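Researcher: Good morning. I'm working through a list of sequences from a screen, and I'd like to move beyond sequence-only analysis. For each chain I'm collecting a predicted structure so we can compare shapes side by side. This is the next one on the list. No need for commentary yet; just the structure.
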Amino acid sequence: MKNFSYRVGLDDEDERIDKWISNTLQELSRSYIQKLIKDDLVFVNGKLQKASYRVKVDDEIAFEIPDAVVPEIPAEDIPLSILYEDADILIIDKPKGMVVHPAPGHYSGTLVNAVMFHCKEQLSGINGVMRPGIVHRIDKDTTGSIIICKNDTAHNLVAAQLKEHSITRKYHAIVYGRFDAEEGRIDAPIGRDPKERKKMAVNVQNGKPAVTYYKMLKEFKEYSYIECQLETGRTHQIRVHMASIGHPVLGDAVYSNRKSKFNLQGQTLHAMTIGLIHPSTGEYLEISAPLPEYFEHLLNILE
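Model: Good morning. Structure tokens for this chain:
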């Protein structure tokens, strides 16, 4: 159990206690803080309070965070679309709607559960029991190629390439609007949105460098079909960058306020191509995931 104690400053007068704690310790979500309050683990001046309590200047806020319990992650016989496999790495074409790795409250049905069944004990353990084999991620509703590492040596070598931005990562997307130029470069740091913690934003304080290249593949009346290549790999990078220049990804309910005319499950974004130096052979390996059926169907409609 970890114990924390803070005193409320003048600028925070009358703020809800759950919001105040969330702003003080930004790694904690408000829903998690509300659970701590419900479990009688948050005190104001030595007394328990409800989540609706509004803090006052010089209040002493004390709370306890229980030690994390490492859950048992089950191996599950979930079909995988394998693009490439050898003794070191596995490249999978991830379907739409599949989460990459388990998280609190969501311990089954993920890509990790599936690769644990497929690979048995042959997965790197560097990222712990929640993320065996995982060296990078793509969003739940983004489809396409993702690398799984089967041993720690492969994991370290692939992670080093990711860190130095030498891995080829090309995505295909359908975005709103038409472009004035055939190609472009977006250089805008990305960080946590200070107003909405679950979102990312450009040009925020403590944002990390982020660069996306894009080029036109096809234009339609109201939309454009583009290829994006990542130089960096920030959370939601393509979605945030395209929205920042007025071309949000079609179907993106988080970074676009435009209502889609089509029956879509999330953004029309596909991790098409991934290329890397193979951890054992030292040779360049490039693999592409075919466009999913829904994406092809949508392009045909737009024609």
